[in-house]
Amino acid sequence: MYVVELSLRLSPMPVAVQRKDLEGARSLYDEVRRAIESGEPKLLELTCEKDEHKRISLLSGEVVAVQTYEKSAVGGGGKRPGFSFDT
């Protein structure tokens, strides 16, 4: 399982959705990255493959960072990869 995590402007909590395979995670990462690069705010609707009822819509102009990582990398009580504020 792979996690695509977005940091939003003025929000301390990231938004995360899961993809079953690396290709799906990379595809979503690229879609969000292109939306950020365009500079034109648009509505992004994200769904989670693990919990198909989990959906979120957000404005691309509010996304300040996006990252992807393998969920197993979080195991073992270690610190989350990337831009985590946990100490």
Structure description:
It is a single chain. With 87 residues, the protein is α+β, with helices and mostly antiparallel strands. It has one domain. The protein contains one helix and five strands, in the order E-E-H-E-E-E. Strand 1 (2-8) and strand 2 form a beta hairpin.
Keywords:
about 90 residues; alpha+beta; 3-stranded antiparallel β-sheet; 1 helix; 5 strands; about 35% strand; globular
- Taken as a percent bin, the fraction of beta residues is 25-35%
Order of neighbouring strands in the sheet with most strands: 2-1-5
Structural class: alpha+beta
SS element count, helices? 1
Query: What is the approximate shape?
Result: globular
Radius of gyration, rounded?
13 Å
Number of domains: 1
For the secondary structure, the number of strands is 5
Helix content: 10-25%
Overall pLDDT confidence: 85
The largest sheet is:
3 strands, antiparallel
Poorly predicted regions are none
The assembly state of the depicted protein chains is: single chain
| End-to-end CA span | 25 Å
- The helix-strand sequence is EEHEEE
